[in-house]
Write a structure and sequence with these properties.
Elements (H helix, E strand, L loop, with lengths): L9 H14 L2 E5 L3 H12 L4 E5 L2 H11 L3 E5 L7 H10 L7 E6 L4 H10 L3 E4 L4 H13 L1
Parallel strand pairs: 1-2, 1-3, 3-4, 4-5
Length: about 140
């Protein structure tokens, strides 16, 4: 008889999450601030996105190359390579250029917005951003 209901064991939940990742729209969250990264993941998990994490710019590129997320949320001030540099690298790679990019930055400065736009970002939000606005942007981009 087939099991019905939610998985009960930790291993079953892990298998379920791995299987779900293949069907869900996947979002890469890259931020060198572990707390900020975790909060973003909690927020996105509410909408059941498949989540991928990177602690800096170079790791974000590695994850993007290996996992091919639908959307990448990049902190402008991420260490190693900043969000704009990562965005430029994604746009320059024909296999990664279709990944939608959201850049988050600390202050709503015209220069930061211009840099994100010039790099090819699909959206940019200033911190503190509205969680609902971020979810709206990610949901919209993941459907394009």
């Amino acid at each position: 008889m087939a099991a019905t209901g939610p998985p009960r064991s930790g291993a079953s939940r892990t298998v379920s999450k791995v299987l779900a990742l293949t069907a869900l729209r996947r979002v890469l969250v890259a931020d060198d601030d572990a707390t900020a990264r975790r909060l973003l993941c909690i927020l996105l998990d509410l909408k059941e996105f498949g989540l991928l994490e990177a602690q800096d710019g170079p790791a974000a590129l590695d994850v993007a190359r290996s996992e091919r997320p639908d959307v990448a949320i990049l902190d402008l001030a991420t260490s190693g390579l900043d969000g704009v540099d990562v965005c430029r690298a994604l746009r320059a790679d024909s296999e990664l250029a279709s990944i939608k990019v959201v850049i988050l930055y600390e202050q709503d400065r015209l220069a930061d917005r211009a840099a994100a736009h010039a790099a090819g970002a699909d959206a940019y939000l200033a911190k503190p951003y509205s969680p609902l606005a971020l979810l709206d942007v990610v949901q919209r981009l993941s459907r394009e």
